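Worked example 3 (structure in, sequence out).
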């Protein structure tokens, strides 16, 4: 799977799986984030292998209903925004999942625009 340079070098982690939960691509940041687990060697492996039963259920739900899973976490003193969502093929069928993980500040402005 080829990706544009801007995705490869994007400062947030981008991981892509197919509909069978196989990891098919990760950008440089994702390879760095998951280095202790194998980094790019995870490509071709099962996405579910690094998730607990609750998370596996969420992955299955996203593949079934097409709705994203969005949340924030704090890990090792760093706050992150996690956006997991299905991606679709050219025929509009759910073809897998994409996870974006980005570091965010603890104090984050929120604006309401009309």
């Amino acid at each position: 799977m080829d990706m544009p340079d801007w995705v490869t070098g994007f400062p947030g982690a981008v991981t892509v799986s197919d509909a069978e939960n196989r990891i098919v691509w990760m950008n440089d940041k994702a390879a760095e984030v998951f280095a202790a687990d194998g980094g790019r060697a995870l490509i071709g492996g099962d996405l579910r292998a690094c998730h607990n039963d609750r998370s596996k259920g969420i992955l299955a739900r996203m593949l079934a209903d097409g709705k994203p899973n969005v949340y924030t976490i704090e890990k090792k003193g760093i706050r992150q925004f996690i956006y997991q969502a299905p991606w679709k093929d050219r025929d509009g069928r759910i073809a897998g999942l994409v996870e974006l993980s980005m570091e965010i500040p603890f104090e984050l402005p929120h604006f309401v625009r009309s």
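Notes: Residues 72 and 81 are 4 Å apart (CA to CA). The chain has a mean pLDDT of 94.
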